[in-house]
Each structure stands twice: as structure tokens, then as C-alpha cells.
């Protein structure tokens, strides 16, 4: 059994290390020509129950549970563009569970854990303010849907299977400045990615509610 309770902190630790390494060489110089925002957040995931294809069927009673997770994001807003337009990187992940009825195996209720990990490149448009900073954006990048403990009849491998694909997102939120350097933020996000595994496919669509804290350099 793959140790997924340990996977989330490892995943985000690696993501954080990669972001810091990529930003560190020019962080001081960038602070003179741009705002650099870095934030950590917790999220609630609210996936759609639609879009599941299992064993050649589209079960009408499929259920994808809500989940919780965490993420990290960093963005650069050049002063030359009025601190309005920013480009950034983001990584986030969460857990969920899929259940559905099986036409091929009457009376059974197949289920599996679903873990979603995504790394996005974001374009953000914001309205700078002294107390509050509203923003909207769009992003796209790499997403992985991982199944564990797949209690699905006909599958030979029930422990672990991953699907890697392109994902995209739309988001909007609000920053509240605590100080010149520290801010809180809340965000709504819509995310989409299509995952394909053995005898199972999912057009994953989810809404997210985020709350986090950030630093501005």
C-alpha cells in the first residue's frame, strides 16, 4: 500500500523547494521592479458527480465526495505594468472518494480513493488597494489523478494507478492586507481535467474554496 498520508506533505515540500530555488536568485532584484506574492492555503474541494465512465457504462448514481487539501502559489507583478498583471506558479492537491453501481456486477458498489495533484501556470489580473486587493485569473498545466484502494471488480491492480493529463482553471479572490508585507486571502476556483485509468475514466470538474496567508516581497 502506497503511503499517501505522507505523500501530501512530501509533494508540497518539493513544490515549495522548487519555487524557492526558482525565485531566490532574483528575489531581491525583483522586489525593486515588481511585487512578488507567495501564499500558502487550505482548500475545500466540491467535485461534480457527473462525468464518470466505468466498465463501458456511464453510471447515473456515481458519487464523488467532497475533499480537503492544501496548496502553495507564487506570482510576480511587474511595476512596469502597474502591479496589475501577474504571472505565477501554483501547486495544490486534495483527496476524495469515488463510488458507483456496476452494471457488470449487480449488487456490488465499487469504490476507490481519488487523489488529485496539480501544478499550474497562472495569469492574474488584480486591482491594487491599500486594504483590499480583488483579483481574477486563469491557469493551465499538469494534473495527476491517482487511484488507491480501488475496490472495483475486474481490476487486477487495486493499490495504485495514476493518470497524467492537462488541466485548466479559472479563479477569483480577495486579498486583505494585514501589513505592508503580510496578507490574508480567500478565493473561489473552478478546475477541470480528464483522467483515464484501466476500466475507469473521469471528466473531473470541481469547485474549490480557498483560504490562506501570504507574504509580499
Helix content, binned percent: 10-25%
Overall 3D shape = elongated
Largest sheet: 8 strands, antiparallel, barrel
What would you say the CATH architecture is?
A: Beta Barrel
Strand order of the largest sheet: 1-4-5-6-7-8-9-10
Order of helices and strands: HHEEEEEEEEEE
- Looking at how many chains there are and whether they match, the oligomeric state comes to single chain
**Count the helices. How many?**
2
CATH class: Mainly Beta
Tally of separate domains: 1
**Average residue pLDDT:** 85
Written account of the structure:
With 217 residues, this protein is mainly beta. The protein has one domain (4-23, 46-216): Beta Barrel (Porin), CATH 2.40.160. The protein is 12% helix and 61% strand. The chain is built from two helices and ten strands. It has helices spanning 4-23, 27-33; strands spanning 34-47, 52-54, 63-64, 67-78, 85-99, 111-126, 132-151, 160-177, 182-197, 200-216. An eight-stranded antiparallel β-barrel has the order 1-4-5-6-7-8-9-10. The longest helix has 20 residues, at 4-23. The radius of gyration is 19 Å and the shape is elongated. Mean pLDDT is 85; it is low at 1-6.
